[in-house]
Design brief:
Blueprint lengths: L1 H29 L1 E5 L3 H6 L10 E6 L2 E2 L7 E2 L1 E4 L2 E5 L8 E5 L14 E3 L7 E3 L7 E11 L5 E9 L7 H4 L6 H4 L16 H27 L1
Parallel strand pairs: 1-10
Antiparallel strand pairs: 1-6, 2-3, 2-4, 2-7, 5-6, 8-9, 10-11
Length: 223
């Protein structure tokens, strides 16, 4: 009986390791933001020079700067003109600014507060709040901050949710024969999302139970 309990305990320990790993990965993803470099035409429209290919991220919270003094740390290139930056759970910012490495172009504050225009003290602009997992894109507008810099106004949007292209939408429709394929019955479960971790966990539990049954039978035969 003690051996059986040991096997079950070991299986539970292995399963907990999978769960902890999945939670840790999810937590890391929670503190990532994405930024798309504005195109030259958009920047020219608001009187700014081209951005270039460098993206730095200045970040802060109540404790001070989180990734060094201005202009901050360099972002990671994702694809095309899109860059990302990820913080850890113990250094989550309350405000960030994307800039081109202190070369004269930057976004407005992304902190949920307000920016007061230097040219018109009565005019305020609502800054976007930090939304994790979102892509920040230029709106085509600019705002002058109290330091005299023209900042790029940005807004958060979902990342990788673009509509399929015209080419993709014109894919060949299934033939009459294909469309008549048997639909899955109600008692079948259609898996969605990434279930690899769940299958591994189930396999571990099943193996542990099988071992426990075999050992129980052996223990009984000895009795």
């Amino acid at each position: 009986m003690k051996k059986i309990l040991s096997v079950i305990f070991a299986a539970a320990l292995v399963a907990s390791m999978f769960v902890v790993g999945a939670v840790s990965t999810s937590a890391a993803d929670d503190y990532t933001v994405y930024f798309e470099i504005p195109d030259d035409a958009t920047l020219e429209k608001i009187g700014l020079d081209v951005w270039g290919s460098k993206v730095s991220v200045h970040a802060w919270n109540d404790a001070g700067n989180l990734n060094g003094e201005w202009p901050g740390a360099e972002a990671t290139h994702v694809e095309g003109n899109i860059y990302s930056y990820t913080w850890t759970a113990d250094s989550v910012p309350t405000g960030i600014i994307f800039n081109n490495g202190n070369n004269g172009v930057q976004t407005q504050n992304i902190d949920g507060g307000e920016t007061v225009s230097k040219t018109d003290a009565s005019k305020t602009v609502k800054n976007p709040a930090i939304e994790w997992g979102k892509l920040y894109k230029a709106t085509g507008e600019g705002i002058e901050d109290p330091n005299g810099n023209t900042n790029v106004v940005v807004a958060a949007t979902d990342y990788k949710t673009a509509e399929p292209s015209a080419t993709e939408s014109k894919k060949e429709e299934p033939s009459a024969t294909e469309s008549k394929k048997e639909e899955p019955s109600d008692d079948k479960t259609v898996a969605t999302g990434d279930t690899s971790a769940a299958w591994v966990l189930l396999a571990v539990v099943a193996a542990s139970l099988g071992t426990a049954v075999v050992m129980t039978k052996k223990a009984s035969s000895k009795d």
